[in-house]
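Model it.
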Amino acid sequence: MEDTHSLHPRVTGLRQTQKAVAKGLAARVYLACDADPALTEPLAQLCRQAGIPVEQGITMSRLGQACRIDVGCAAAAELKPQ
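Modeled.
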């Protein structure tokens, strides 16, 4: 997640990201490469089914920083413009 992406509306965390994908609100999903695959794979599959691009290769710590939260997170979603 680039710094410019951090300016877009977003949700953080697996559950909030799953909800955004299920409701069709997510434009792009970011999954941490060091998160437990047992947790992130169902979300990745949901994104594939919905045709939502998934970015991987960022650590939980860096993803949390990009989302401007004090802890790491396994997933985040950039939301579609309203």
